[in-house]
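fold description:
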Amino acid sequence: MQIAILGAGIGGMAAAYDLAKAGHEVTIFEGSGSPGGLAGGFKEPGWQSSVENFYHHWFQTDSEILGLMQEVGLRDKVFFPRPKTVMFYREKFYPLDSPVAALKFPGYSFPDMLRFGLVGVYLRYLAAWQPLEKFTAHDWMQRWFGENLYRLQWEPMLQGKFGPHYREVNMAWFWARLKARTTRLGTSQGGFQAFADEFAEILSGMGVKILYNTRVEGLQPAEQGLTLQLERGELGFDRVLSTTSPVQLAKLAPALPPEYLAGLLNLKSMGAVVLILALKHQLSREGYYWYNLPKAAGFPFLALVEHTNFVPAEQFGGDHIVYCGDYLDPSHEHFSLSADQLLERFLPSFTRINPDFKPEWVRAAWVKKTTYAQPVPLLNHSQNIPAIRTPLSGLYFASMSQVYPWDRGTNFAVQIGRQAARVILKDVSAG
């Protein structure tokens, strides 16, 4: 069987691995010049490691991605440092990366701490997600965590992740964050781009064709299979797996039934804008890695991540790498601003991190943008998830909008990609 995959992200490559292993001819079409998708990155001269375009890390519970890396012989390149995560409160930063640290947080009363522990244990070890999707996280957490705890910790996170939709997000999404995440964070030797490059080489060695800088402009049903419309000509395939966003799939496949198309377009999501800085000096004097910054505190971004307090600055030629990231509605004005314009807006906030900071510390700046970064799961979202097998014969769909209730990330990209491969193989076997 000739199978096409649209997108050389981690999910698309995971699907290609299983399909090629089963003996099929697989071609991946990738619009950019390199593999990795949203987990891809770039590397400056003098750097030993790449920097992700959109910040990524792994958790120790990420069995799907770690299992795949074990299969392909790359598991030994994963390491798990334990960086310091802090939360902003009354112009100070407090560690909030462990249950003990949370209990020492000065904004919490004793009843808050008790609720934090009891409700957290219930969600992590006892609760099922299905009943929780009937409630918004906004309402459920206010009721069970209490007003103070919710306002201090959880509401800022929801506001930052989902912007104007934060009151609509269902509680199953929050359950998944507590269930699946760990305090120790992992990365790959050489960065995520190095992993993506090595995985792509493995796929090429298996016979998978990866066509970079090749955009698929449309697809149509054919007598047998589907026809892909490219900038220069057309190609036919027996099966096609799209790993694009729901909106992109709707544009590519207008032959899909109207009801299915409407379902794709009704799925909500947030975009992301990330300003990446190379600094001449360490920003955090305390060696903090991840700063959670509530929007109400006046910071112009959701999170500040000093990557080189996680991966040593020596990997980047002495540059200290800092991310300023935010999830934003695709209509937000930050999508129209250049790196210099964002830098002008963001830099005044840096003195709140380090009073000694000076603009001259900035050696270089890059801005990365995507309109599809974070699905917004509404009430009873499980009823609205598109099936992997679309109504158009031979066409399949696998995206981060389908990993629910789990959150987006490379681990669940692998999961949905391999799940899609299993569905395709089952259909092929059935004839």
Observations:
- Residues 2-80+191-266+384-430 form a domain with the FAD/NAD(P)-binding domain fold (CATH 3.50.50.60).
- The chain has three domains: 2-80+191-266+384-430, 98-179, 269-375.
- The first helix runs from residue 10 to 21.
- The longest strand covers residues 362-375.
